[in-house]
Amino acid sequence: MKEKYFIHESAYVDDNVEIDEGTKVWHFSHVQGGTKIGKNCSLGQNVNIGNNVDIGNNVKIQNNVSVYEGVELEDYVFCGPSMVFTNILNPRSEFPQRGSEFYIKTIVKKSASLGANSTIVCGNTIGKYALVGAGAVVTKDVPDYAMVVGAPAHIKGWMCACGNKLSLSVASGSKESAKCSKCGREYNKIENKVKQI
Predict the structure, then answer these.
(1) pLDDT tens-place string over residues 5-23
(2) Which domains does the chain possess?
(3) Are the C-beta atoms of 105 and 89 separated by less than 8 Å?
C-alpha cells in the first residue's frame, strides 16, 4: 500500500506522529513524537519539529527551521528560510528548563508569513495574514494583516490577504479604508486594527 505522504529516506520521523495526506518531509529533517502535521504541508531540508507541535494544513516550512514544543502553526502559515522560534524566555544551560510546564506558547495564525531569518520570541501571537519581514525580531503580538519589520519589530504597513501591501486612506473621522489594487478586497482600519469588509 502506497503511503499517503512522502518522507525522504534521510529524514527521521519518531513514533506517535500523525502526518496527513499530501505532506512532504524532505532531506535530513526530524519530526519528534506527539506532533500532528496536517494535509499538503512541505517541510524543507534540515527542518526540526519538536515534540507535541501542532501544524495545520498547507503549511510551508523552508530549510533550516526548528519549530519547538509550545509553537502552534495554523493553516497556510509560511516559515521562511532559517527563521527562528523560541520557547523559553530565560534559558540556562546550567539549569535546564524542559517540559511543557516551562514552555511559553506561541501561535502563528492562519496565512501569516514569517520572513527569512526572522526571530519570533516566545509568548507572542502572530495575527492572521500578517507579514513578518526578513530579519525582524518579534517581541510582542502582531495584529492581523500587519506588516512588521526591524529589531524590535514594529508596524510598517498593512497587508491584503492576497499578499499585496495596502494603501490606506482616511475616509471619515478616525476610520481609514483600502481596496487592494491586486485582488479588490476591501478593508477598514480603526485605531490599530484592520478588518476585511
Answers:
(1) 999 999 999 999 999 999 9
(2) 6-159 (2.160.10.10), 163-197 (no CATH)
(3) no
